[in-house]
Each structure stands twice: as structure tokens, then as C-alpha cells.
Design goal:
Layout (H helix, E strand, L loop, with lengths): L3 H6 L6 H7 L7 E3 L5 E3 L2 H5 L6 E7 L9 H14 L4 E5 L4 H5 L7 E2 L2 E4 L1 H5 L5 H21 L6 E6 L3 E3 L9 E3 L10 E3 L1 E3 L4 H8 L3 H10 L1 E5 L4 E3 L6 H8 L6 E5 L4 E4 L14 H10 L2 E5 L4 H16 L5 E6 L1 H7 L12 H21 L4 E6 L6 H12 L5 E4 L1 H4 L5 H11 L15 H12 L4 E4 L1 H12 L7 E4 L19 E10 L4 E6 L18 E2 L5 E2 L3
Parallel strand pairs: 3-16, 3-17, 4-15, 4-16, 8-11, 17-18, 18-19, 20-22, 21-23
Antiparallel strand pairs: 1-2, 2-14, 5-6, 6-14, 7-12, 9-10, 12-13, 14-15, 22-23, 24-25
Helix pairs in contact: 4-17, 7-8, 7-10, 9-10, 13-14, 14-15
Length: about 550
């Protein structure tokens, strides 16, 4: 059996100019990065008179080590929609180098439902993340330089909230002391790094509509507080212009293609467990403008990615989804039912029954909290039995939701036709799209609503520190912002060990931080960190390149 990279390397991609032509993008908007990648100027959105297409969100059950295949399903669905005669485009996030070299793997799909060139996409691509990291660290350098040069703003070095960033899993950099070595080497202080995808600049880039909006958002970012508790912004440091200059090309979405030549916009990549987890608003809008159906995904499960997609991205950008696809596997549902990973290939209807509430709770949330029609896509594995598949279909039908078997990993678009037909049917229905909470609710009320309505918790508890922060953020005028929950992806709760659909738990919020440029408040729960570490045997150990430049070991 061929690996993902071997399948991708056997592909015969079209020139990116041909892909652009296939979705009526004029060459004047295209900036080439070789033969198979291009940037698309966001002026296209302002100058096009085409109506928007239908927006389809792909989300999933709570992830497990067994895998779900959300990106694979997104790519395969777009290919399948084109197979049944629909003009479809897919919009995805860019992969972070940290997980690529760590354990999670890339984000270019898999099997015969991939975007190419997958090696480029999973590695440096068009340099967007490097630009974001450079802008982040420019601001950090300007902040420390201001303190070194006399600290005219009165910044309290113990209240600096801005961290440096690097797009790598490097736990050694989580907590550091810098500025050592004497007066000329800076002011000694505690510091730390975040992974680039957790930087607020990533969120800002993904939510900005153009250069003007980008600069305004960058200017609002809070980097520290003064000795008397006043926020210090990037604008106070006169940094937004230089940062925007570094980001001017990164702001433009990237155009590539699937193995079946479906146009694919890949742009931005905030993590969904520590950030808002969606590709850029600009890329999504571009996909809607050039396609009758735009397929996009949100990170991790529906309690994280879909909730933030709706309550943050859709709210800010005025987007209205037409249908939702919830990806599940029989193997993952059995894992939620208590079966160890080594035994997931064996039929086990009892374990499947125990694990199904996880899927059903996500389905219930999409239908009754977000008010959207949905279909369950079962990402097929050869070990799935008819009895297991029938059981999933039976339980979903009790909630009025259809199940489609997705075989896109093995068959590409051909294996997703049934799913595509159901998505088209759902897109033709009216829906009662709604947000989880009203913006005018207090910070505490919004947290309580998310925890009760989406996670099905008994409630939320704020630590003394979080209560103090909520009061301060309210006094500063930020209480009407949406909430971005930083929570484990492995459970509805804030405890990664609680699988399935747990009940009788309370979510503890230990820290609240405003991302004033992005326009949301980040609530940290559990032991979530903004800088991951590498596993015992990182994927980087298996990656290599030969004398001809051919990369191996990349999935």
C-alpha cells in the first residue's frame, strides 16, 4: 500500500494558472510561487460581482488516537461535489511545522483525497508562518527595546503579556529568563515562547479583511500593562506599520489543487484547542465567491472548532453556513466506548454503543444549539462491519440525521458521492442558524453558556485569578467580545481522560486574556499550553531528502 506522500508524488498536477482559470480567477489577481502554487490578491473580493455560493462546514467527533480524517473528508467531499456536477472549492488551514515534525502529522488530507504539492504545503509553503513569526518577534523586540531605552510608557516588566514565537514544538522555550549579561544586553526578565499558530498575529491575519483592517487590528493588540494597570498596545510602540509590511503578502490566500484538480485555498492555521481554529476569513470568502459550494473545516471536534467557527468567525465575517458534516469513524467511537487502540479492529457492538453518545452529542449541538442541518460522514475502514455501520445509522436516524459512508481515502471523489448528494440536499433546506450566546452577556455568563450548552457541563468555575481578570477586562470595556476557549481537544470536559459524553463535571477557567486585535477573549482551562513539546519518537526522525531533492517519510 502506498503512503500518502508516495500517492502525492505520483500525481500529475495541472499548472496553477489552469486551476485559476477553472474557477474564473483572472490572471491579474495571481502571483505565482512556481508552477503549482499561487497567491491570490484579496482585491478579487472587492472587484467581483459574483454571488456567494453555499458554505459547508466539516467538523468531527472528539478526536482519538484512532484518527477521524476531517481534512481527508473535506478534500474528498469537494472532489465528490465536482464529480456530481457541482462547482465546488475547498478552503483549508495551513499546517504548522510543530505538529508536522512532532506527532500529529500534516494537514493536506490523505490517501486519494489530498491537496498537492503536499510536501510544500506541509513544510514552508509560501512562507506565511515565517512572516507571522517575524512580525510577532519584531513586536517583542520593539517592546523590550522601549524598556531598555528608558521605558517612557511606564511598562511593568512583570505585566508583559506578549511572548515570542517559533513554529516548532519546543518545550524548552515555554518559560525562560532573558536579557542576561549586563546592562547593554537588555533588561533581565521572565519570558517565554508560543508556537506561531498560537500567536495573536495568526488570529489577526485570519480575521482581517485587507491591509487597512490588518493594521487597525495589529495596532489594538495589547502587549503589556503599565505600573498603574493601563494596557499598552502595539500602536503605543508604533509597531503596526512595520508588522503590516512584513505581513502584506502573507495576507493573500494561497491557491493549490487536490489530486483531482479541484481548486483549494489554503491559508492561515490557528490551533483550535488554543486559538480559534479556522482558515482565514479571506480564503473562505474567496472560495464562496468562485465556487457554488465552498467546503471548509474547523479544527478538532465540533465543541471546539465548530463552536469557534460559528461564534467567532461567522459572527465577525457575517458568514452563514448552509450545512455541516460531522466526521466519525467506527474505530474512534469504539475507543470512546473503552476499547484500547490495539483492539479497535475487532467488531464490538457493546463498546460502539457506549461510544456513540459522543457522536450523538455533537450532532445534537449542531442541530439544536447552532440550528444547522447536518450529516454524519463515516470515514470508512476495511475493518468496519455491517452490524457496526447499521448501529451508527440507526442511532443517528433517531435524531433525524442521515449517515453517509465516505470512502474518499481509498477512492477519492468517487468514494464521496453519497455524502455529496446528501450535502446538496441539506443545502437546499432552510435553517435556524444561531449563535451559542449573545455578545451583550457578561464574560462569566458567556463562559457558563458555552460550558452548559456545548460541553453539557454542570457549570463553570473561575479561579480567583480568572475572576480578577474578568473584572479588569470588563472595566477596560472588553466584556462584549466573544469567547475563545482554550481547552483539551480530547474531551467535552477540561479533563482529557473523560471520553464519550461525560456528565456531572464542572469546567475550571484559570486564566482570561484579551486578544484585542483578533477581537476575542481567550479562556484557558485545564493544563492547556501555548507551546507544545515533541513526543518521545518525533516524526522528524523519519523525514529525509535524497540527492535529487525528493522528500521521504513525510506521512
Amino acid at each position: 500500500m502506498l503512503s500518502d506522500i508516495e500517492i502525492a508524488q505520483q500525481a500529475n498536477p495541472l499548472k496553477i494558472t489552469d486551476i485559476a482559470k477553472s474557477c474564473n480567477i483572472d490572471e491579474k489577481y495571481i502571483e505565482m510561487y512556481g508552477n503549482y502554487k499561487a497567491k491570490v490578491d484579496y482585491r478579487l473580493l472587492k472587484e467581483s460581482s459574483e454571488p456567494d455560493g453555499k458554505l459547508i462546514l466539516v467538523t468531527a467527533i472528539t478526536p482519538t488516537p484512532a484518527g477521524e480524517g476531517k481534512t481527508t473528508t473535506s478534500v474528498g467531499l469537494a472532489d465528490a461535489l465536482r464529480k456530481i456536477g457541482k462547482n465546488a472549492v475547498v478552503a483549508l488551514r495551513e499546517p504548522s511545522l510543530g505538529p508536522v515534525f512532532g506527532v500529529k502529522g500534516g494537514a493536506a488530507g490523505g490517501g486519494y483525497a489530498q491537496v498537492v504539492p503536499m510536501e510544500d504545503i506541509n513544510l514552508h509553503f509560501t512562507g506565511d508562518f515565517h512572516a507571522i513569526g517575524a512580525a510577532n518577534n519584531l513586536l517583542a523586540a520593539m517592546l523590550d527595546n522601549h524598556i531598555q531605552q528608558g521605558n517612557a510608557l511606564g511598562i511593568d516588566v512583570k505585566q508583559i503579556t506578549w511572548k515570542r514565537a517559533v513554529d516548532m514544538n519546543d518545550r524548552q522555550l515555554r518559560h525562560i529568563v532573558d536579557g542576561l549579561g549586563g546592562r547593554m544586553q537588555g533588561v533581565p526578565r521572565e519570558d517565554g515562547f508560543e508556537i506561531t499558530v498560537a500567536s495573536e498575529i495568526m488570529a489577526v491575519l485570519c480575521l482581517a479583511s485587507d491591509i487597512t483592517d490588518l493594521k487597525a487590528r495589529l495596532a489594538r493588540m495589547i502587549v503589556a500593562y503599565t505600573y498603574d494597570g493601563k494596557p499598552v498596545t502595539a500602536h503605543d510602540l508604533k509597531a503596526e506599520g512595520a508588522m503590516a509590511a512584513l505581513l502584506k503578502d502573507a495576507l493573500k490566500p494561497n491557491l493549490v489543487q487536490t489530486l483531482e484538480h479541484t481548486p483549494a485555498f489554503i491559508h492561515g492555521g490557528p490551533f483550535a484547542n488554543i486559538a480559534h481554529g479556522c482558515n482565514s476569513v479571506t480564503a473562505t470568502r474567496m472560495a464562496l465567491k468562485v465556487g457554488d459550494y465552498a467546503v471548509t473545516e474547523a479544527g478538532f471536534a465540533a465543541d471546539l472548532g465548530a463552536e469557534k467557527f460559528i461564534d467567532i468567525k461567522c459572527r465577525m465575517a457575517g458568514l452563514h453556513p448552509s450545512a455541516v458534516v460531522i466526521v466519525a469513524t467506527v474505530r474512534a467511537l469504539k475507543y470512546h466506548g473503552g476499547v484500547p487502540k490495539a483492539e479497535l479492529n475487532n467488531e464490538n457492538l457493546e463498546a460502539l454503543k457506549k461510544g456513540l453518545p459522543n457522536l450523538l452529542q455533537h450532532v445534537d449541538n449542531v442541530k439544536n444549539v447552532f440550528g444547522l442541518p447536518c450529516v454524519v460522514a463515516i470515514n470508512a475502514f476495511p475493518t468496519d462491519t455491517k452490524a457496526e455501520l447499521d448501529l451508527v445509522e440507526e442511532k443517528c436516524s433517531e435524531l433525524g440525521v442521515n449517515v453517509a459512508l465516505s470512502e474518499v481515502w481509498a477512492k477519492g471523489g468517487e468514494g464521496g458521492k453519497a455524502l455529496a448528494e446528501e450535502v446538496v440536499r441539506l443545502c437546499g433546506q432552510p435553517n435556524d442558524f444561531s449563535f451559542t450566546y449573545p455578545l451583550e452577556a457578561s464574560i462569566e455568563e458567556k463562559l457558563e453558556t458555552i460550558c452548559k450548552r456545548v460541553y453539557h457541563a454542570d457549570g463553570v468555575q473561575l479561579t480567583a485569578n480568572a475572576k480578577k481578570q474578568a473584572k479588569q477586562l470588563t472595566e477596560l470595556g472588553f466584556s462584549d467580545l466573544p469567547i475563545c476557549m482554550a481547552k483539551t481537544q480530547y474531551s467535552f470536559s477540561d479533563d482529557a481522560s473523560l471520553l464519550g459524553a461525560p456528565k456531572g463535571f464542572t469546567v475550571t477557567v484559570r486564566n482570561l486574556k484579551v486578544s484585542a486585535g483578533a477581537g476575542f477573549i481567550v479562556a484557558l482551562t485545564g493544563d492547556i499550553m501555548t507551546m507544545p513539546g515533541l513526543p518521545k519518537a518525533p516524526a522528524a526522525e523519519k523525514i529525509d531528502v535524497n540527492e535529487n531533492g525528493k522528500i521521504t517519510g513525510l506521512f
